[in-house]
Design brief:
Elements (H helix, E strand, L loop, with lengths): L10 E2 L16 E5 L6 E5 L17 E5 L4 H6 L5 E6 L4 H16 L5 E6 L4 H6 L4 E2 L1 E6 L2 E7 L4 H16 L1
Parallel strand pairs: 4-6, 5-6
Antiparallel strand pairs: 1-7, 2-3, 5-8, 8-9
Helix pairs in contact: 2-4
The protein binds zinc ion (ZN).
Zinc ion binds next to loops.
Length: 171
Amino acid sequence: MSTVAGGGASSTVAGGGASSTFAGGGASSTVIACASCGKKNRVPAAAAGVPRCAACHAPLPWLTTAEDADFDRVAGESPLPVLVDLWAPWCGPCKAVAPGVEQAARKLAGRLKVVKVNVDRAPAVSARYDARSIPTLLILDNGVVKDRQVGAVPPDALLRWAEQALRRSAA
Ligand SMILES: [Zn+2]
Protein backbone atom coordinates (compact mmCIF):
# COMPACT_ATOMS: atom_id res chain seq x y z
CA MET A 1 0.00 0.00 0.00
CA SER A 2 1.31 3.37 -0.97
CA THR A 3 0.68 6.43 1.17
CA VAL A 4 2.27 8.98 -1.14
CA ALA A 5 -0.29 10.55 -3.41
CA GLY A 6 0.29 11.56 -6.96
CA GLY A 7 1.59 9.47 -9.79
CA GLY A 8 5.29 10.06 -10.09
CA ALA A 9 7.18 9.04 -13.15
CA SER A 10 8.68 5.60 -13.29
CA SER A 11 10.52 3.46 -15.78
CA THR A 12 9.41 0.05 -16.85
CA VAL A 13 11.98 -2.64 -16.39
CA ALA A 14 12.66 -4.37 -19.67
CA GLY A 15 11.92 -7.99 -18.92
CA GLY A 16 13.78 -11.02 -20.04
CA GLY A 17 17.50 -10.82 -20.47
CA ALA A 18 18.77 -12.66 -17.46
CA SER A 19 22.28 -12.75 -18.87
CA SER A 20 23.79 -11.42 -15.71
CA THR A 21 27.46 -11.77 -15.19
CA PHE A 22 28.21 -10.49 -11.74
CA ALA A 23 31.33 -8.48 -11.27
CA GLY A 24 31.17 -10.05 -7.84
CA GLY A 25 31.39 -8.70 -4.39
CA GLY A 26 29.37 -5.57 -3.84
CA ALA A 27 30.40 -3.00 -1.29
CA SER A 28 31.24 -4.57 2.04
CA SER A 29 31.79 -1.19 3.69
CA THR A 30 31.40 2.50 2.94
CA VAL A 31 33.08 5.60 4.36
CA ILE A 32 30.44 7.95 5.78
CA ALA A 33 31.03 11.32 7.44
CA CYS A 34 29.35 11.79 10.83
CA ALA A 35 26.55 14.38 10.63
CA SER A 36 27.35 15.63 14.15
CA CYS A 37 31.15 15.97 14.23
CA GLY A 38 32.27 15.36 10.65
CA LYS A 39 34.55 12.44 11.46
CA LYS A 40 34.79 9.93 8.61
CA ASN A 41 33.77 6.45 9.70
CA ARG A 42 33.93 3.15 7.87
CA VAL A 43 30.41 1.69 7.98
CA PRO A 44 29.93 -2.02 7.23
CA ALA A 45 27.24 -3.13 4.76
CA ALA A 46 25.99 -5.71 7.24
CA ALA A 47 26.26 -5.56 11.02
CA ALA A 48 24.37 -6.80 14.05
CA GLY A 49 24.14 -3.35 15.64
CA VAL A 50 23.51 0.24 14.56
CA PRO A 51 26.76 1.90 13.36
CA ARG A 52 27.87 4.81 15.53
CA CYS A 53 30.52 7.48 15.14
CA ALA A 54 33.84 6.46 16.66
CA ALA A 55 34.41 10.01 17.93
CA CYS A 56 31.04 11.24 19.25
CA HIS A 57 28.93 8.04 19.23
CA ALA A 58 26.07 9.63 17.25
CA PRO A 59 24.25 7.12 15.04
CA LEU A 60 25.64 7.24 11.51
CA PRO A 61 23.57 7.37 8.33
CA TRP A 62 23.54 3.77 7.10
CA LEU A 63 23.46 3.92 3.31
CA THR A 64 24.82 0.90 1.52
CA THR A 65 24.32 -1.29 -1.53
CA ALA A 66 23.46 -4.93 -2.15
CA GLU A 67 23.15 -7.37 -5.02
CA ASP A 68 21.61 -10.84 -5.32
CA ALA A 69 24.53 -12.49 -3.56
CA ASP A 70 24.50 -10.38 -0.40
CA PHE A 71 20.95 -8.97 -0.24
CA ASP A 72 19.69 -11.35 2.45
CA ARG A 73 22.68 -10.62 4.66
CA VAL A 74 22.62 -6.84 4.11
CA ALA A 75 18.86 -6.14 4.04
CA GLY A 76 17.20 -9.28 5.43
CA GLU A 77 19.19 -9.55 8.64
CA SER A 78 19.34 -5.84 9.47
CA PRO A 79 18.87 -4.74 13.10
CA LEU A 80 16.90 -1.73 11.76
CA PRO A 81 13.99 -1.46 9.32
CA VAL A 82 15.37 -1.13 5.79
CA LEU A 83 14.47 1.22 2.98
CA VAL A 84 15.30 -0.64 -0.23
CA ASP A 85 15.78 1.51 -3.34
CA LEU A 86 15.44 -0.62 -6.47
CA TRP A 87 17.03 1.46 -9.24
CA ALA A 88 19.13 1.28 -12.40
CA PRO A 89 21.72 3.59 -13.97
CA TRP A 90 19.59 4.03 -17.13
CA CYS A 91 16.48 5.12 -15.20
CA GLY A 92 15.96 8.90 -15.11
CA PRO A 93 13.28 8.92 -12.37
CA CYS A 94 15.63 6.80 -10.22
CA LYS A 95 18.18 9.62 -10.35
CA ALA A 96 15.42 12.01 -9.25
CA VAL A 97 14.65 10.01 -6.10
CA ALA A 98 18.30 9.43 -5.14
CA PRO A 99 18.69 12.72 -3.18
CA GLY A 100 15.52 11.92 -1.22
CA VAL A 101 16.81 8.43 -0.43
CA GLU A 102 20.09 9.91 0.81
CA GLN A 103 18.22 12.51 2.88
CA ALA A 104 16.14 9.75 4.51
CA ALA A 105 19.36 7.92 5.46
CA ARG A 106 20.74 11.11 7.07
CA LYS A 107 17.59 12.30 8.83
CA LEU A 108 16.57 8.84 10.05
CA ALA A 109 20.09 7.78 11.10
CA GLY A 110 19.87 5.20 13.87
CA ARG A 111 16.27 4.33 12.95
CA LEU A 112 16.49 3.29 9.29
CA LYS A 113 19.01 1.50 7.11
CA VAL A 114 19.03 2.33 3.40
CA VAL A 115 20.07 -0.28 0.83
CA LYS A 116 20.36 0.68 -2.82
CA VAL A 117 19.92 -2.24 -5.22
CA ASN A 118 20.86 -1.91 -8.89
CA VAL A 119 18.26 -4.16 -10.54
CA ASP A 120 20.61 -4.93 -13.43
CA ARG A 121 22.90 -6.61 -10.90
CA ALA A 122 20.13 -8.12 -8.79
CA PRO A 123 17.62 -9.89 -11.07
CA ALA A 124 16.57 -12.33 -8.34
CA VAL A 125 15.87 -9.57 -5.82
CA SER A 126 13.86 -7.57 -8.39
CA ALA A 127 11.85 -10.66 -9.28
CA ARG A 128 11.22 -11.48 -5.62
CA TYR A 129 9.77 -8.02 -4.95
CA ASP A 130 8.05 -7.82 -8.32
CA ALA A 131 9.86 -4.62 -9.32
CA ARG A 132 8.49 -4.27 -12.82
CA SER A 133 8.69 -0.49 -12.65
CA ILE A 134 11.51 1.43 -11.09
CA PRO A 135 12.19 3.28 -8.96
CA THR A 136 10.50 0.97 -6.49
CA LEU A 137 11.03 1.77 -2.83
CA LEU A 138 10.32 -0.83 -0.15
CA ILE A 139 10.29 -0.72 3.62
CA LEU A 140 11.42 -4.08 5.00
CA ASP A 141 11.17 -5.06 8.64
CA ASN A 142 12.83 -8.36 9.48
CA GLY A 143 12.72 -9.13 5.77
CA VAL A 144 8.95 -8.52 5.49
CA VAL A 145 7.62 -5.80 3.16
CA LYS A 146 5.82 -3.18 5.26
CA ASP A 147 5.28 -0.60 2.56
CA ARG A 148 5.98 0.03 -1.11
CA GLN A 149 6.24 3.16 -3.23
CA VAL A 150 6.57 3.01 -7.01
CA GLY A 151 7.71 6.00 -9.03
CA ALA A 152 9.58 9.19 -8.30
CA VAL A 153 8.61 11.23 -5.23
CA PRO A 154 10.05 14.53 -4.01
CA PRO A 155 12.58 14.22 -1.13
CA ASP A 156 10.27 15.60 1.57
CA ALA A 157 7.37 13.33 0.58
CA LEU A 158 9.76 10.38 0.56
CA LEU A 159 10.94 11.27 4.07
CA ARG A 160 7.35 11.54 5.36
CA TRP A 161 6.49 8.20 3.76
CA ALA A 162 9.50 6.51 5.41
CA GLU A 163 8.69 8.07 8.80
CA GLN A 164 5.08 6.85 8.61
CA ALA A 165 6.24 3.35 7.69
CA LEU A 166 8.64 3.35 10.66
CA ARG A 167 5.87 4.46 13.03
CA ARG A 168 3.63 1.69 11.73
CA SER A 169 6.25 -1.01 12.08
CA ALA A 170 7.08 0.19 15.62
CA ALA A 171 3.40 0.02 16.60
ZN1 LIG B 1 30.67 12.06 15.26
